[in-house]
Amino acid sequence: MSNVYYAVKTVVDPTILPNSxxxxxxxxxxxxxxxxxxxxxxxxxxxxxxxxxAADLVIGALAQAAPERCIAAGNGSCATASFAGADPKDGxxxxxxxxxxxxxxxxxxxxxxxxxxxxxxELVDGSGGAGRSRGGMGLRRVYRAEAECHLRLDGSxxxxxxxxxxxxxxxxxxxxxxxxxxxxxVGGAGRLRAGETVEIITxxxxxxxxxxxxxx
Length: 216
Hints:
Layout: H1 2-12, H2 20-23, H3 47-63, H4 107-113, E1 116-123, E2 139-145, E3 149-152, E4 175-178, E5 189-192, E6 197-201
């Protein structure tokens, strides 16, 4: 349904707010048991490719009424190549793992959009647990507020480090710290005044296997 709403919005008026007012006039019918409305135990995967074709379908239908507002069909596909294997190298640095898709916002983009300055952005040396394969290192970012703002911080692994395995050492803990004068936060939220800074350190990962030599 969201795919159809998107396609209609692009043709009718891209500035329409994506809310129930946009969806209300649109009827979406997808017969039960089809690829657009699958039933158990149908195998489902690759939704992006399905959505690409659905968008082409809706825009193509609307083109019969308003061709001057429509584009020709896009590539209608999303090519994917998934490689799997064993990698004996150290862990990747500065990345999330498992159920996450958090972006790594470039400093330049952040500073253009918000009254913030990034004073430091680096890997935290030594935060990856020692091991035959070293754990990935965490990140350090230091932000300076250029105007008063509210800040909420969420994090974990601040007290208990990520554990190592098979003789590997634990990784480093995460941490939050502030410049002098910042008022104490309550429930993870508080205020930064212009010129005040916050340092955010993400945890490193645990090492795997016994270290064959001193931690690099």
